[in-house]
Amino acid sequence: MVTTSSNGSNEAFLADYELSATTPENLGAALDQTYRALEKAEVFFGHGSDSAWDEAVFLLLSAAGLPLDSGDAVLDHALDKDVWECTLAWLQARIVERKPLPYLTGRAWFAGLEFKCDERALVPRSPLAEVIGTQYTPWWSGDSPSSLLDLCCGGGCIGIAAAMYQEELKVVLADIDADALALARENVELYELQERVTIVQSDLMAALGNEKFDIILCNPPYVDAADLASMPQEYHAEPPQGLGSGDDGLDITRRILAAAGKHLSPQGVLFLELGNSWEALDAELADLSLSWLEFAEGGHGVLVVRADELASISARLSSSSAES
Ligand SMILES: C[S@@+](CC[C@H](N)C(=O)[O-])C[C@H]1O[C@@H](n2cnc3c(N)ncnc32)[C@H](O)[C@@H]1O
């Protein structure tokens, strides 16, 4: 039988993780309990924080409605009962259901910007943030690009960050999933970018007609079947159409590479994230010496292709699919 304590949390859960049913005397004491519970639970960190301590701080400051850069002075703040109840509810969902924390707090950060985040789309974490921060150099040269496509946009963080980093850039956000696009729309409204950022529901570029872009940024589904089967439970809380892409993780990538040439301006550049599946593509196209980005802030597996290189890649991919 499951017993529920007066604050709504499962008593066995509280006992297992040595969490008090009564409200701790201050934020510091609550942080200590929160951190220990996350440590003991051995939750997986891959959605915006990389340690139990960082998650504990994020969780508690969010529950208390305090800024994330609050200093140590807040540790002495008295804790309201409702803040502790919220903390316990989030901890239970994080530990028992293994939900990524941004789905519980409803917010995530990407390229230094805060976004609304929920189960309609993946939690933002792409290394493409660094590509935006360095303004596509040295791959894009000359005046600033004037148009950008965020393909497979999810909640829209990549295209919105690009628009926020460069005034006057026109951006299209495209995704096949109406729920993800509804979240993207809320994020566009959050940054009041409706005039410069357009949202299109599209199976890859099918609904884009002949529109061309200076830059295409794309973080598509790219997880291969073996990785998908062994991913920590936290990833299974995310929409499955955002992760898997066939046995070798390249099903969608092949379609993107075949179609992208039609949608790049003559000097345009495609930045395509492939994660661990980069090795499969690199091996398949070994004769073409593909260019893979290196990141100062972490991440790997991002292919960069100029418009004039796409024809040979697309021809090579269609000949290998004809051979197989
Ligand atoms: C890895 S998620 C990336 C989301 C977002 N760009 C980010 O970085 O947080 C991949 C996205 O691709 C979308 N997607 C999957 N298949 C698609 C297709 N055929 N056409 C367009 N979007 C697709 C999914 O709905 C999902 O939102």
Using brief descriptors, characterize the structure shown.
324 residues, alpha/beta, Rossmann fold, 2 domains, seven-stranded mixed β-sheet, two-stranded antiparallel sheet, 12 helices, binds S-adenosylmethionine
Overview of this protein structure:
This protein is α/β, with parallel strands linked by helices and 324 residues long. It folds into two domains: 11-105, no CATH class; 108-323, Vaccinia Virus protein VP39 (Rossmann fold, 3-Layer(aba) Sandwich), CATH 3.40.50.150. The protein is built from twelve helices and nine strands. Helix 2 (27-41) runs parallel beside helix 4. The longest helix is centred in the last third of the chain and has 17 residues, at 307-323. The chain is elongated, with a radius of gyration of 22 Å. Bound molecules: S-adenosylmethionine (SAM).
Q: Which ligands occur here?
A: S-adenosylmethionine
CATH topology name of the largest domain, in short, is Rossmann fold
In what range is the share of β-strand residues? 5-15%
The CATH superfamily title of the largest domain: Vaccinia Virus protein VP39
Number of strands: 9
Which architecture of the largest domain would the CATH scheme give at its second level? 3-Layer(aba) Sandwich
CATH class of the largest domain: Alpha Beta
Q: Span between N and C termini?
A: 56 Å
Main sheet: which strands, in order across?
A: 5-4-3-6-7-9-8
What is the typical, i.e. mean, pLDDT? 94
What is the count of distinct domains? 2
Shape: elongated
* Secondary-structure element series: HHHHHEEHEHEHEEHHEHEEH
* Main sheet overview: 7 strands, mixed
Low-confidence stretches are none
* Total DSSP helices: 12
